[in-house]
From TrEMBL:
<protein>
    <submittedName>
        <fullName>Uncharacterized protein</fullName>
    </submittedName>
</protein>
<feature type="compositionally biased region" description="Basic and acidic residues">
    <location>
        <begin position="1"/>
        <end position="10"/>
    </location>
</feature>
<feature type="region of interest" description="Disordered">
    <location>
        <begin position="1"/>
        <end position="32"/>
    </location>
</feature>
<feature type="compositionally biased region" description="Basic and acidic residues">
    <location>
        <begin position="83"/>
        <end position="93"/>
    </location>
</feature>
<feature type="region of interest" description="Disordered">
    <location>
        <begin position="83"/>
        <end position="104"/>
    </location>
</feature>
<feature type="region of interest" description="Disordered">
    <location>
        <begin position="44"/>
        <end position="67"/>
    </location>
</feature>
Amino acid sequence: MLDPASEREGTAVGATIRDGAFTIERDQGPTPGTYKVRIYASSNVQAPAPAGSSNRKPRPMVERIPARYNARTEEVVEIRAKGGNRIDIDVQPDRPSPSSDSPP
C-alpha cells in the first residue's frame, strides 16, 4: 500500500504482491508526491482473545510482517510524474531481543 505522507498528497493505493513484485498501472496509481510504504501479510490466524473475553468474538488476524513495515512504517518513497517508479523494499524479520539471562 502507498499511503500519502501528508494530507496535501494524493490518495492511498495498493496492489497484491505476487512472487515478490507488484504493479500499479499509471492511470490507476498514485499521483506524484511522497508516500509511506505499508506492507501487510495476513497469517489467516486470528489474534488470541484477551483474557476474560469471549473466544467467539471476531478478532484481527495475526500480521506476519513486522510493524515497522506497516503500522509503524518508516519506509517513504517519492513517486515521480515521468519515468519509471520502482520501489524495492528488503523486508527483514524482527530479531529477537537478547534475554537478560544471556551474557553481553
